[in-house]
Specification:
Pdz3 Domain; 7 helices; 3 domains; 25 strands; alpha+beta; Thrombin, subunit H; 6-stranded antiparallel barrel
Length: 378
């Protein structure tokens, strides 16, 4: 009996100790959870509800770098709206047409950057700020070869964007595109990465768009002219175009967006703001690109070059002796190839430079010196 009583007492003590330990452990865990979780917001159902009880909603403050950058840059992003006048056609006059794109404020003085193709052919233009305010805008000048334009507005501005250094971009870097797709969804945000830098695309106007930034951030119609932003909140490009597939009828492609680099934007916009226009070197010729197909079809002596179709009166080209039918094969030190078109080679120089133009006339090569002059679209 003594042994049984002793065994019972030991068993009782063990049981009590186990229950006490479990209680203490549960209390510690509960206190830790209460400290880790945010204080809940209690929402009590309205009186008269058939189902009584309380709904607990977490009040966690979730914030990321992307949201912080968007909050910083978004006030400077605008929607650009232009009006194209009616045109006379075979069926009569067409109605006026409204076009839209995006842009962003780069100066407290009211200067706005957008794409040239957004405001091309419009007879009036205005911008819509992030808060919905509409302001009339003046087109200061544009550069069709970089597809950039600078506008000017007057009024209270909610923010100014900062241009970053696009030369420091690396593939894989996270970027944010902000704009107004389709003109209706103002200040929409998409994210992606830098896919590549230094891309070249045929403009379809006889020259190549060079040194473009490629990104997979979604860019749609209406995003043109909007900023491409890095995670430091700096604009590193101006969204310009997107490719859906090649002209050869290949399968459609996604995630092929392109932007004009910020350093190009800075160079052109600063000169437009200072002078009222951006100067390009001027030779004074109209050309047709020579490629292997054209060379084969017309039995030309070179595979790549620029066939002169017209020479402007009193131009540097006329003064140097160039004439229609000549085929330019070298501009300065730059030979014309598949990778280097005539216009891009010419734009590697500045007004006032004296360069050599190498050309072929009647199968004979010749070289003439030319002093380039200033030309601008004003």
């Amino acid at each position: 009996m003594k042994r049984f009583a002793l065994f019972f007492v030991v068993l009782l003590l063990v049981g009590v100790s186990a229950l006490g330990g479990a209680f203490v452990g549960a209390t510690i865990v509960q206190n830790a959870q209460n400290r880790a979780l945010p204080e809940p917001i209690t929402i009590v159902q309205e009186s008269g509800s058939q189902n009584g009880g309380e709904l607990f909603v977490s009040s966690s403050d979730i914030s990321t770098t992307v949201t912080e950058v968007v909050e910083l840059v978004e006030p400077a992003v605008v929607t650009v709206v232009g009006e194209i006048p009616g045109q006379r056609t075979f069926f009569g006059f067409t109605n006026e047409q409204e076009v839209s794109g995006s842009g962003f404020i780069i100066s407290t003085s009211g200067y706005v950057v957008t794409n040239n193709h957004v405001i091309e052919d419009v007879n009036s233009v205005f911008i819509i700020l992030s808060d919905g305010t509409e302001l009339e805008a003046e087109i200061i000048s544009r550069d069709i070869f970089a597809d950039l334009a600078v506008l000017k507005v007057n009024g209270d501005l909610p923010g100014v964007a900062v241009l970053g250094d696009s030369d420091r971009l690396k593939p894989g870097e996270t970027v944010i595109a902000i704009g107004s797709p389709l003109g209706d969804f103002r200040n929409s945000v998409t994210t992606g990465v830098i896919s590549a830098t230094g891309r070249m695309l045929d403009s379809g106007r006889g020259y190549e768009m060079e040194n473009l930034i490629q990104t997979d951030a979604a860019i749609n119609s209406g995003n043109s002219g909007g900023p491409l932003v890095n995670l430091a909140g700096e604009v590193i490009g101006v969204n310009t175009l997107v490719l859906r597939g090649s002209s050869g009828g290949s399968a459609p492609a996604e995630g092929l967006g392109f932007a004009v680099p910020a350093n190009t934007v800075r160079l052109i916009s600063e000169q437009i703001i200072e002078k009222g226009y951006f100067a390009r070197p001027y030779l004074g010729v109209y050309i047709q690109q020579v490629n292997p197909e054209a060379a084969r079809r017309y039995n030309l002596p070179v595979q790549w070059g620029a066939y002169i179709t017209r020479v402007n009166t009193s131009s540097p080209a006329e003064e140097s002796g160039l004439r229609p039918g000549d085929i330019i094969v070298r501009v300065g030190e730059i030979s014309l190839t598949e990778e280097k078109a005539f216009t891009n080679a010419l734009f590697s120089y500045q007004a006032g430079d004296v360069i050599e133009i190498e050309f072929i006339r009647s199968s004979e090569r010749s070289v003439v010196p030319v002093r380039l002059i200033e030309s601008a679209l004003r």
